[in-house]
Amino acid sequence: MFCRTAKDVFKVVKEKDVSFIQCWFTDVLGMLKSFSITPTELEEALTEGMGFDGSSIEGFARIEESDMIAKPDPTTFQLIPWRPQDRPVARMFCDILEPDGSPYKGDCRYVLKRILRRAAEKGYTFYLGPELEYFYFESNTEPKILDKGGYFDTPPLDRGNDLRRATILALQQMGIDVEYSHHEVAPSQHEVDLRYDEALRMADKTMTYRIAVKEIARSMGLYATFMPKPIFGVNGSGMHTHQSLFIGDKNAFYDPDDPYHLTDIAKWYIAGLLKHAREITAITSQWVNSYKRLVPGYEAPVYISWARRNRSTLVRVPMYKPGKEKAMRVEFRSPDPACNPYLAFAVMLAAGLEGIEKRYPLPDPVEEDVYHLSPEEKRQLGIESLPNNLFEAILEVENSEVVRNALGDHIFYKFIQNKRIEWDNYRIHVSQYEVEKYLPIL
Q: Are residues 30 and 63 in the same domain?
């Protein structure tokens, strides 16, 4: 079902006898927030918005300026499949407004809308197709796996097949198209790939996808996690993000006459991603745990380079369907699935647009396995690494005008403030590793 206007929403609510409508939005860290209204409040919500206290939401207003308004977007109305169906529950994503009706600068959805307007002014529509990996565990108290399957394994090795199937059916009921799903490389690790869409719709879909995966698992007595690195010694979970710019119906990245089938726009865009990769990493890999994944040897890209078929590089230009214009895209491989998709999509686009506007030169592709290059070889090729930990990433993003302009001062400084607190808490924590290693000998 797809609603275009408030009138469509009223009609569906009446016909389906909807009991509650959940109003969804995200905080600065990408955590989904929600409150519910009854159909009697729906008209007020869609015309005026619903007031709430923003001072208790991470990255939102201070207590002395706490009044916020959540105004639902009727185009995001969908019934929630995992809620009781006798009296259905629906959801809508909200835009967060100031009391005077102006956009709230701490609203992540607004941040993405603003950078998309900047792209639209240049004639571009930004499309994305993220691949979110995740794990199924028996509970949320320890990472106890369900199976020892590997890449593309099938039942009985793959014990998550029915879970993925139920998740895909739920997503389809919510109007979210899925391209394919499979067991991933690590034990009990899985992936469901969404069909590409315009960036704002895809950010909403990404938030919905994460909730759907978790809720379907919970309904079956299990736990799903998008934690980037929950198990030592195996691959972590990434969010390889395929992206392209279109001008009308034409893919602005595709040139049939170029040796790489890339236009100048695509080359500048890739160069922008590479040049600003270290600066945007705190946004695309925002947790202390994210950097346990971004290490050599586990398929996670840590070296800033690009290629066509080489999966050890940060940026890849897939060649699944050579010559098919709409399939030409750029894959940015470092983000993880626990990031805030609104902010992550915004800074990736900002980096790419910076490359286009300033016509950054694109270095040669690196088709050999970067992991096996010596430090001297990497130095000769000009290959840098992503930040090694959250603290390094914070130092990079603090000095980034590209990220600051993309996020706006409010979210930029709130995000950094939160990440510094997280790093300090992690830095002073005494881990079990330290106790086991040092206590017997020191």
A: yes
Domain count, the chain: 2
E strands of 143-188, at which residues? 178-183
> Cis ω on the peptide bond leading into residue 156 (within 30° of 0)?
yes
Contact 370, 378 (CB under 8 A): yes
β-partners of residue 224 are 136
> 165 and 191: one domain?
yes
Name the active-site residue from 333, 336, 396, 404: 333
Same domain for 334 and 386? yes
CATH number at residue 340: 3.30.590.10
Are both 139 and 190 inside the same structural domain?
yes
* Token pair belonging to 359: 């016509």
Look up 91 and say whether it is catalytic.
no
Neighbours of 362 (CB within 10 A): 21
- Specify whether the CB–CB gap between 286 and 29 falls below 8 A: yes
- 290: containing domain: 113-419
Query: CA separation (Å) from 281 to 119, 294, 334, 347, 389?
Result: 21, 11, 8, 9, 10
- CA of 310: how far to CAs of 67, 94, 152, 236, 248, in Å? 50, 40, 20, 19, 30
pLDDT tens-digit map of 101-156? 999 999 999 999 999 999 999 999 999 999 999 999 999 999 999 999 999 999 99
Q: Do 383 and 234 reside in the same domain of the chain?
A: yes
Residue with tokens 């008209």: 43
Same domain flag for 155 and 74: no
Which residue of the set 107, 331, 354, 396 is catalytic?
331
Backbone angles phi, psi at 309, to 5 degrees: -110, -5
Give yes or no for a contact between 321 and 329, defined as CB atoms under 8 angstroms apart: no
pTM over 0.70: yes
Q: How far is 388 from 369, CA to CA, in rounded Å?
A: 20
CA-based R_g, the chain, Å: 22
pLDDT category, 59, cuts 50, 70, 90?
low
Return d(Cα 157, Cα 261) in angstroms, integer.
Answer: 39
Please indicate whether residue 184 is annotated as part of the active site: yes
User: Is there a catalytic annotation at residue 131?
Assistant: yes
376: how many CB neighbours lie within 10 A of its CB? 8
What is the phi/psi pair of residue 66, to 5°? -85, -15
Same domain, 179 and 44: no
Spot the catalytic one: 27, 91, 107, 131: 131
